[in-house]
Amino acid sequence: MSIIGLTSCNSNDYKDNPFFSDYGTYLEAPAFDKIKIEHYKPAFIEGMKQQQAEVAAICDNPATPDFNNTIWAYDKSGELLSKVSGVFFNMMECMSNDQMLELAEELYPMLSKHSDSIMMNPKLYGRIDYVYQHRNEMGLDDQQIRVVEKYHQDFLRHGAGLSATGQAKLSVINERLSTLSLQFGNNLLKENSNYKLVIDNKAELAGLPQSSIDAAAEQAKKDGMEGKWVFTLSKPSLIPFLTYADDATLRKQMYEAYYNRGDNNNEYDNKAIIKEMLTLRLQKANLFGYDNYANYVLDVNMAKDDKTVDKFLSDIFKAANKLAQKELAEMQKISKPNKIERSDWWYYAEQLRKAKYDFDENYIRPYLSVSNVRNGMFMAANKLYGVTFEQRADIPVYFEGVETYEVKDFDGTILGLLYLDFYPRESK
To answer: Could you say which DSSP state residue 134 is in?
Structure first.
């Protein structure tokens, strides 16, 4: 049986830590106004400790394994860990900073070990396997049977059926992959935030819609360069620039900066990380009897194997390439005598659209404000599914401008809360 040691939290770790009690908010929404960086680690450690104890109780249960004392008990385990994980990993996506990244580097290997110690626990798997083998004799409904089958499959795919040697190898691979995955994402985030195209000549803004120019001016002001224009690699800045900017040289700079992220031979280069991840993924797949990682992943999906996916992608490519070549020829007539580079594609596609259909996306831009799009989305959801959205001003948010909505089913049943975070920032 795999064992993971966790340091117990002292009383000071619990004091004023919102994860260790009810949030006291509407529908127990995360108390973002109280959660601080120092609250995460103690909650993660205690959450893992509690789940280990809950799993041990399942394993030591002398009763014959059944759905309730094994499957359902396991499903309910790790409540605190789920609570803190749900907040932390979402914040890593939208409010990342150096402190969060440093903490993640410490937590990821711990969480990997914790997960492996459960998924490779022979006593726990033995009970789950017993329920699986007798699932059709226990009077379970279809949903319960599906849950049993899914958990049984998950445990096998996470190493429960491997030998002790295989499990040890898998644990090392999983821990390393968790670290590499984090490093890869962090490097990408750094490459995104570090690149800025600074323009101080107004003539170089030719072709850009006023909304993009205004946003670039605001970004410049934020960066202490008022009077200039700053474009970033965030999609709301990048896409309009590649689509409308008349300056081909600047378009190429933006395009190459975006597509070369992690490939600049600097401290954020991802090539070595990718190579090691590919090697480890192959080793992981081989442990489970697959000849490549793609087949390991696809085996539980509809495609089943890489040959099916390759054929599917090849068929799409042939059809798409034929149309793309036709479009390229049409765009080349507009761009001549200049040869169309990859960085020019979006720009000339927009020029072609204007020429063929007399259509300019900027004409409909005033109708596609954030509020209009949001309201249209809500209207569509209501007409299709009967759900309604009511904005709440009493729910804490993690960033100014984030909107929260209570979501109700057609019969008034509360389904949950929806957070809308519209705007780009370097931490997202």
So the answer is: T
The DSSP line for 166-187 is HHHHHHHHHHHHHHHHHHHHHH
- How far is the C-alpha of 145 from the C-alpha of 427, rounded, in Å? 42
Do residues 395 and 417 lie in contact, with contact meaning Cβ atoms separated by under 8 Å?
yes
What would the pLDDT profile of 388-423 be if each residue is shown by its tens digit?
A: 999 999 999 999 999 999 999 999 999 999 999 998
pTM of the model: 0.89
Check if the beta carbon of residue 127 is closer than 8 Å to that of residue 65: yes
pLDDT at 242 over 70: yes
Residue type, 109: P
What 265-274 contacts at long range (C-beta under 8 Å, 24+ apart), as own/partner pairs, is 268/187, 268/188, 268/190, 268/191, 268/194, 269/187, 270/184, 270/187, 270/188, 273/180, 273/183, 273/184, 273/187, 274/184
Q: Please, what is the angle between helix 98-119 and helix 79-94, to 10°? A: 140
d(CA 300, CA 295): 9
Look-up of token digits 């996470």: 158
Longest distance between any two alpha carbons in the chain, whole Å: 81
- Give the side-chain half-sphere CA count within 13 A for 98: 0
